[in-house]
Amino acid sequence: xxxxxxxxxxxxxxxxxxxxxxxxxxxxxxxxxxxxxxxxxxxxxxxxxxxxxxxxxxxxxxxxxxxxxxxxxxxxxxxxxxxxxxxxxxxxxxxxxxxxxxxxxxxxxxxxxxxxxxxxxxxxxxxxxxxxxxxxxxxxxxxxxxxxxxxxxxxxxxxxxxxxxxxxxxxxxxxxxxxxxxxxxxxxxxxxxxxxxxxxxxxxxxxxxxxxxxxxxxxxxxxxxxxxxxxxxxxxxxxxxxxxxxxxxxxxxxxxxxxxxxxxxxxxxxxxxxxxxxxxxxxxxxxxxxxxxxxxxxxxxxxxxxxxxxxxxxxxxxxxxxxxxxxxxxxxxxxxxxxxxxxxxxxxxxxxxxxxxxxxxxxxxxxxxxxxxxxxxxxxxxxxxxxxxxxxxxxxxxxxxxxxxxxxxxxxxxxxxxxxxxxxxxxxxxxxxxxxxxxxxxxxxxxxxxxxxxxxxxxxxxxxxxxxxxxxxxxxxxxxxxxxxxxxxxxxxxxxxxxxxxxxxxxxxxxxxxxxxxxxxxxxxxxxxxxxxxxxxxxxxxxxxxxxxxxxxxxxxxxxxxxxxxxxxxxxxxxxxxxxxxxxxxxxxxxxxxxxxxxxxxxxxxxxxxxxxxxxxxxxxxxxxxxxxxxxxxxxxxxxxxxxxxxxxxxxxxxxxxxxxxxxxxxxxxxxxxxxxxxxxxxxxxxxxxxxxxxxxxxxxxxxxxxxxxxxxxxxxxxxxxxxxxxxxxxxxxxxxxxxxxxxxxxxxxxxxxxxxxxxxxxxxxxxxxxxxxxxxxxxxx
Length: 782
Known about the structure:
- The protein has 782 residues and is mainly β.
- Helix content is 6%, strand content 52%.
- It has 2 domains: 3-322 and 333-387 and 447-781, Maltoporin, Chain A (Beta Barrel); 389-441, no CATH class.
- The chain is built from 7 helices and 43 strands.
- The longest helix has 10 residues, at 388-397.
- One of its GO terms (biological process) is iron ion transport.
């Protein structure tokens, strides 16, 4: 049997499933658009279903919609996904917020709240999670706890990136572009059939842009990017009942530094606006002359198999390996001071395997069950360098040594002599005060801390659906998780006690004699979901669900604890949600309302006595909201995609009868309202081709950058909107195109992040988003 015939026979078992892949043929060239809106087919429940039939709040984008909305990275995806906010400081440090629940910690032992997957393989580890989107078949974002579908990290939902596989055809594509800020883009794919049963696909992309914030410190612009990605896929169906995909991914990111600009201290010749020139510096000699910026490599191999055991039984597996290596160097103060520099040197590797058995004989009962094995080992090393003179002046000015006037009087010098950050007092005040004489302060004092985490986890899960009637289906699922964890860390210096306080460390957390400390622990838990789906008629599907999600327990390095570690208990969410999907001749409308309650919501609080962030249980929280979306053909020449989100997520006033630290505060990265609108307008067409206009606009209300909403005036983002548009020409056969594109066309000023590491010193920094960018892009299909 030819591969094409084999695939047609297996189509009902879910083409291109993340967990149950079939070697299916997909269209690689643009096809004429249908006269009515087709509903996207998704595999969120590990079987091919129309989005209308999935009893989950899922926002899905197929290749046509990805192109229409010009989704080229994860930030673009968030613009059009209700409840999703993604803010990228750099590819190494990206915040993901789904319904106000945020994942962004880079600690080696941290656990995620929002899960990210690449064809079913977890890519959730923070420093390796940001991947470039190219040659994508589909994007699916499932909201709400999904314990039997996603597993680890899916406290409140997950994002699955489904990549194009090799198909039984010979084809290729090539595109390129350029624009202001020296934008460059080049990418494409080659697909080659290898006989009747095998095929190979190679895809790649290169995207680069200079920075948009001038840096007076080293003359190199900040907030630029340079990414190169390559993917190779080998697919085959050696028998009528077995098929596979082998996928290899490689990505390298580099670029200038992140624009951590001080909002309090203006460098000479600048101001405190995050949108104007900054002065970020490196103390000479740090890390053997490393420059500000990022160097990161992420790579991995995935093997997907799909085996028809019988007409009713289907076995699928997902096996994955990933590793990453990342070094980012930054100035956390951003005020033109040679005060402090940090670097984050992170690396890790993971191995995972999932086996899933699915039963579907066409009757009322469908089910799946299986197990998952997951192993990861990660390290995060944080070296720092300090100018002790500037550090001393800073600590004196904040009152760390007592009243500055009294300190100055005791030394017989004016106050300005010991508080001037730009011309600091050169001798140790602590030494003078204790009679040790004039001990000079060092301009390049270094210290280092590190943490490491290792996790080995086994999961078993089962999910059963039963069609009680032709219209009513009930689903119940459960997952059991067992985890063995090891956490370790150290903090020390080779330069002896610092000369500002004469303590073992100046800022970073210390361990006895800089030795490594470690802790082990085991955890287990049950999570579950219950769903009722009811088809009111052929056009209206409704559903309601009640589910429990979990963020695993964390062994956190905590130098404030006598044994240097503390256990952050698992975060638990229980969520009640109801939704509907309504189909019309020209489009569809879907949405849901939800209410979620959280226990043990974890935060981190800076402890000035230890100079480190200590784990903090922020207690309980409550969230409720509504999400709506529509994809509509309003006219034969006009297609519209629109979303609206209302989300109110706040910390409860009390927990166990005790007042909470963040009582009544909003979750960070959680706008109350957001709206997105995208359109495809056919301006003109004929035998020569087609001209179309593709505008989009996204808006969100104000939100906070910290769970402490009152910390540091201005550490919030006011409401803003982003307008994007493309004017596109395509030939009549859709095989050639040229387009003008523009992003942030109104040149809206808004922030990517605020507070940051500088906030721990009382000096919050602010990072500006990209201004107006524009350019031209051309491409061809062969």
